[in-house]
Amino acid sequence: MSGKRITVVTGGASGIGEATALKLGAAGDKVFVADVNRQAAEDVVARISAAGGEALAKTLDVSDDAAIEEVFARIAKDHGAVSVLVNSAGLVQNAETVINMDMEQNDRIWAVNYRGTLQCSRAAGRQMKENKGGSIIMIGSINSYRPMPLAAYNPGKVAIKGLMEVMAAELGPHKVRVNGVAPGYTMTPAIQSRIDSGKRDPQAILDMQALDYFIQPGDIADGIHFLCSDAAKAITGVLLPIDAGWLTATTYNTYPAVPDA
């Protein structure tokens, strides 16, 4: 078995997951790119390998409990206990009201975004607890802190923040850290497609931020790399906003008075 850290990145074939898999692969981890799209996962693995890293692809639908158990058990048996889990698999949503939302879509988003994160964290957490160490990263959102007209996605990201905090307290005595990142509007393929189709206004995004900057998946990967590194050994239970100042600016800019020049 390899002496490298065993790292699993769910949703690792695109967007934030892809950027994170590449980042952790370059940092020396043995990365398992777990994604429902096997060919895309293989492509990411090839890029990691071409850069001198070590990676393997795993087909995984995180809404399938049995598949999660099988994948994590197989990794542990063949390669060793998982040291790092990045829960990047997720679905996005267009604006929708609660009273009019499509319940089938609601259930699918919860199955992937929340339950998928929960079940993967449980599977990895058991291994880390037994191995007395590890790091779990969850993907929250600015939605974890503010209400938005995303009837399923928004409450799910609030729930992920709570899950992260509960697991941080539960697993901390076993030297397992549980943290997360809260991305702002990040230029993933999913967000770019919504901009292209007119579902998102890019200028409105910039106007709501403190920084005039479009967040890239690599920016989120940098934060994840820090949180699961020894540089963050005293940090657990933290959801780190990486939002170009969106959380700050949205309250500052709506204050009902004009500051003196």
From TrEMBL:
Xref: SUPFAM superfamilies: NAD(P)-binding Rossmann-fold domains
InterPro entries named among the record's database cross-references: NAD(P)-bd_dom_sf, SDR_fam
Source organism superkingdom: Bacteria
A single MF term (Gene Ontology): oxidoreductase activity, acting on the CH-OH group of donors, NAD or NADP as acceptor
PANTHER family named among the record's database cross-references: SHORT-CHAIN DEHYDROGENASES/REDUCTASES FAMILY MEMBER (PTHR42760)
UniProt similarity note: Belongs to the short-chain dehydrogenases/reductases (SDR) family.
Protein name from the UniProt record: SDR family oxidoreductase
